[in-house]
Amino acid sequence: MRRRWGVAFGLAVVLGASVVLVAPSGAAPSGPDALRVDLDDILADQRLNGSHTGVVVRDPATDEVLYSRQAADRATPASNAKLLTSAAALEALGPEYRFRTDVVTDAPQLGPVLSGDLYLRGTGDPTLLAADYDRLAEQVAAAGIRLVRGRLLTDSSWFDDVPLGTGWAWDDEPYYFAAPVSALTVAPDADFDAGTAIVRVSPTAEGRPAAVQLEPATGVVQIDNRTTTSAADGEPDVTVEREHGGSRVVVSGTVPAGAQPFEDFTTVPNPAGYAADVFARALTAHGVTIRGTGEGTAPAGGRELASRHSIPLRELLVPFLKLSNNGHAEVLVKAMGREVRGDGSWSAGLEVLTDKLSRLGVDPAVLRMVDGSGLSTMDQVTPEQLAVLLDNARERPWFRSWYDALPVAGVADRMVGGTLRNRMAGTAAENNVHAKTGSMTGVTSLSGYVTTANGRELVFSVVFNDFLTSSPKDLEDAIAIRLAEYNGADDQPRGRVHVPQSRTPPDDPSTRVDESTLECPWVKAC
Fold first, then answer.
1. Whole-model pTM?
2. Is 82 a catalytic residue?
3. Integer Cα distance of 122 and 184 in angstroms
4. What integer is the mean pLDDT of 223-227?
5. Which of the following is catalytic: 156, 310, 324, 447?
6. Does 223 share its domain with 128?
7. Which one of 30, 68, 82, 401 is the catalytic residue?
8. Residues 81, 124: one domain?
């Protein structure tokens, strides 16, 4: 494992945090010097005036630092934090790790009657769909049970009962990128957006309220329908918002007559109760009657009636990293804490994360993580340490799964291109750059791998903080493209790199967040 930072700048010298070129009089820069000229030019953009601009480019084969600017200064990484969480989880849990969900009882069964309680016990699986709960119910029915004289009790004790991360904004609570975390939950879609439900708004007759449904059907949130069906050929204008701290979801606005249904997400305040509700409905559909739901701890040594194992972690990495799923990061942190320390909490999990990252060369003295997703603005890391992780991860047996799960620039398939599918297409970076994106208000980041024109694989990290203008993601792209064009010792200055326009999610002024500053999957724009 490499832990040293070789500095082979040739005629360049490093003064503080900036790189200054020293070249013979009249000589045009070439090789690494030419690259630094162009990166300096990209970073001279006035949108970065007064902001934090952290950039590092490294050649892992030689330990040469090709470029460095504020690389050792801490910054908020946004979703680049998921690089840290995913690597630590692979170290702590292993690529074959699976979440398990069980249905157990200690009650006697006499024919079709279970004379006691039924327990639904979870370990944090974020991939449980309504169809999976249906299959669990089918297994219970196959055991011959038709009447449960007790209740269906949820056991979510594998994790603690803290649902939201440290430093998360209260006004993010309704949005699905800030869904509560629990050892028992439900995902409404194949992206595995656990802890949320889809709100489907369908037009009726013009002037009448639209029809509002939840997918999956559940009674744990209450819909306050304030919608209207508008004239045909218009555009939908619908707002979905769960009230802070409550279970009422206000759906307002208009949807045009004859239009396709409008869909949005709402978070669910009690994920375990949500799981109980969905499972209870599935039991009823399979002819099993229960007498209510509640919470409880499954008895040790209880009889197993049904079980499900999730996909392995190496497969979960794909929706996790491609689509920058916050919930996946947080359940992995708590799972690390539970499996290694016997404590399914953020604090225990982050201790494990820090320990595993230190074994990957990341210096814990310059790292602060308070969650796993990067949603908290309290998270702090340096571009230098992100690059160290990217370098040293290459030596791990799980590296190929991790590398393949990173978003790939310009590839249209969302489960390949992910958050980079709409960026850098038609350039040397297309189908080349594998990197993790990150964004929130005043923060954008891009860190990963790029193969140069002369076949070298470089690691790079770009973290911009505290800009007040529109997001400078195009500058990240320009850096990545320029690295893809780099030609080693034969390299020549190219001037400003042309960056094709990417599809940035527009801001919806009716919401409390600026969607244009968020990861594109958080607003389903990629």
1. 0.92
2. yes
3. 5
4. 97
5. 324
6. no
7. 82
8. no
